[in-house]
Structures are given as C-alpha cells and as structure tokens.
Fold this sequence. Notes:
Mean pLDDT of chain A: 96
Oligomer: homodimer
Structural class of chain A: alpha/beta
Low-confidence stretches of chain A: none
Strand content of chain A: 15-25%
Shape of chain A: elongated
CATH architecture of the largest domain in chain A: 3-Layer(aba) Sandwich
Number of helices of chain A: 10
Largest interface: A-B, 40 and 40 residues
Helix content of chain A: 25-40%
Order of helices and strands of chain A: HHEHEHEHEEHEHEHEEHEH
CATH superfamily of the largest domain in chain A: SPOUT methyltransferase, trefoil knot domain
Amino acid sequence: MLSKSRVKYIQSLGQKKFRETEAVFIAEGPKLMKELLEEKSADVKEIYALKEWIDDNLHIVGNTSVTEISEADLEKISHLTTPNKVLAILNQFDNGKLPSAKGKVTLVLENLQDPGNLGTIIRIADWFGVVQIVCSTDTVDVYNPKVVQSTMGSIARVKVFYTGLPEWLTSQKGTSVFTATLKGKDVTTVSKISEGIVIIGNESKGISAELLNLADVKITIPQIGKAESLNAAVAAGIILSHLLT
Amino acid sequence: MLSKSRVKYIQSLGQKKFRETEAVFIAEGPKLMKELLEEKSADVKEIYALKEWIDDNLHIVGNTSVTEISEADLEKISHLTTPNKVLAILNQFDNGKLPSAKGKVTLVLENLQDPGNLGTIIRIADWFGVVQIVCSTDTVDVYNPKVVQSTMGSIARVKVFYTGLPEWLTSQKGTSVFTATLKGKDVTTVSKISEGIVIIGNESKGISAELLNLADVKITIPQIGKAESLNAAVAAGIILSHLLT
C-alpha cells in the first residue's frame, strides 16, 4: 500500500520542475527496468512493483529498495497509457561539464519538441556509438517520462547536455559541423567521419539561420518521391548511418 | 452547432469497425488538410472547422461541404490531444486488387503495431518514391487517426494493402526479397536496386521465421554502439536510403 503523499510525490515527477528539484526521474516497464538495472551508470533509487515482477526479478535488484504495490497503486503513479508491472525512481545522471567535440562524433539537437523523437534519437546515437548529444536549452527534457521510455535503456549510455548552441559551437573550432538541410551535399557521397558535429533541427522549422551560418558542410538526404520532409529521428538515423558506417 | 448524432458519428470513426463500415477516415489540422485538399487522390467529403480556418482557406476547399463549428464542438470530435482548427472526413482510398512487385520497390510490413511507426514509414516511403506497401493483416490500421496524422499527407500518395504475407510473397517469385535482421549482409555494401521487396518486422519480435525463410537477401544495419535494436521506422529509413539512393 502506497501512502497518499508518496503517490503525490511520484505523480509530481511527471513535471520537469519537480524532477529538477529532486534530481531524479522515472522509468517504467520490465524491459526498460532490466536494461537499467544491468547498466552501471544508472542509479536506481526505489522500485515500485507488482508481486509477480518482484518474484521474477529479485535476483537482479541488488540493494535497491523495492516496494510491492497493487495494480490500483501502479495505475495511480504510472505515466504510461498501459501501466506495466514496475516503476522506478532513478537519480539523474551526473554528466559533469559541457563536453569537447574533439576526437568524437557529437549530435547536436536544436529545439527538438517531440519526446518520442528525442528518445528515438538517443537510441540511434547509442546504436551508432555516438556517446554525447548537446541540445539547445529549448529542446524537450531528456527526463520527460516519454523520452525515457522511448530510449529503451540507451539513456544510460549516451550523455545528454543542454546549453546555448551558438556559444558551444563557436567554442569547438577545429571540428567540422554538418547540418541536415533540404539543399545540401548528397549524404550518400559524403566521406565517413570519426570526428564531427552533426546538427538536427526542429521538427517543423528545421535549423535556425544562426546555426546554419556556423555549419561547415550542409548535407541532404536525396528525395525521390514527394514527401515534404522526413521525421527528425529518421533523418538523424539516415545521416549517422552514412557518416559513420 | 453540431447535432449530437453527428458528434457521435464522428467520434465512432476512431474505431476501425465503424471506419470500415462507412469506408471513411478522419484527418485533422491545417497543415495536413492543405496537403490532402491539394492531392487529387484524396477525396475529402466533409470539413468541420473554426471560423478562422474557413476564412483563410475558403479558396482551397472547392465543392467540399464545410461546416463552421465552435472550439467546444471541435474538442468533442477531435482525436488529437490538442485539437487544431479543422477536422475532415475523407473516403478511404480505392487501391484495387493486390499489387505486383514487378518493376517496383515494395515495402512489406509484418505485424507493425505502433500507429506512429506506420505513419512515419508511409512518409519515408513517399520520400524515397516507394509507391506501395503491403502489410500483414495484423498490422495496425492505416486509417487509425494517429497513423493518418503522422503520414503528414503521404497517405494520399502511397498505396497501402493488407493481406496474408506468405501467400502474397510466394506469388511474387522473380522479385528479390530483402529482410532487415540482426545478422545479415552489411546494408552499406548492398547494391542499389530498382526492383525488390523489403520486409520490416514487428517492433519487438522482428521478422517471423516463416517470412525469413522466404527472403533472398538478409541485411543488417551495422551496429557500433550498444543499443539492442533500432526503432522500426528508423530502420526502414536507413535501409531504403542505402538501397535506393
């Protein structure tokens, strides 16, 4: 049985301001939980789960506090449409200071708004071995429950930073900056890179003129048919696939 | 003012069985509406819109019946989290009989469940000039409002069929069948194609053993990092980008 105040506390973590004050976030469901419990970088503080999940997973929870709850309680605290056996509170990752782009591939996201897109992009980054993402401060919060869910665990392996992009990009002189635009060099003809910054823009507005000005190479995914654009995460996937493999 | 029975009718179109009986579907929002009104293949039957949308768009609606409604009415009939000025009822597309794979690139979807994924894949197909998609009968309905919204208008340019996949694939002998799997030929090394069938599997289970057996070429997106898999739509985008451009 969960106390009312605990229910209220967990519900409040759906909001960014409360997540920030507490420096925690929520993750849900057996698959994601297993991924996070196995990942050293993920610091699981508290687990709330149905009896059946606890019975099956006691061997992987280690010293983490586990509270058995009812389906009715899970429904109250879950941020999923269909609550799924287990919910955990984790400490936010301590990524330290802003990263350097030297010697690495860095993804830069400008004003990305859709939580599913950000989560999917973190998963893509993790697939292609991109270890850091730098987001504009107006990009959706990485600890938004929908972002966390759609990373499928990759949130524990990719460092996500927020900052003013023009300043950060200007401080990374020497590393080539690639932007995805509708009129640029065919991405299938660009050479593979082992160092570089790749900018993905807002879902409907694309990349701002200010960032476009800071780009060294403008690249385009060749269009054969008539769709006006590609989904931001799909574009990120295609571009990284051509630049990195 | 909308009658109660009209509100009920439009709400019912959120369910597949009512859409099928009526052979119609719903689309919403100014951007999608503009795309669909401009597309000859889309047959817009009725439009329900706020005064401001009607004032701005009267020149593009042609002979379509337009009903001015209040924000309160729109909220009742909308399937969006944030209703957006206009909702239309369209006739379902008449795609005729099952297509031949000869001379074309055909996308095949097995048991895709997420509406956003299907919509995004239709948009990707449209970007890369793929004009037909054949889905297993247990794939999410193309006229699901969330699918329609995420196609961004591409639903009017890509033909989507539903059928038993083993039978259809067996009837297409002579056309190479490519499947995305976790262990196959590196997609970046596969030659460009102008004819072929590309299978994308279920979000969590991948491709069934039965379909895998019918594949001529198994392809894989090289993995550098640690993510267990890629989102189905992202995988489709990357594969089509390498096979077609």
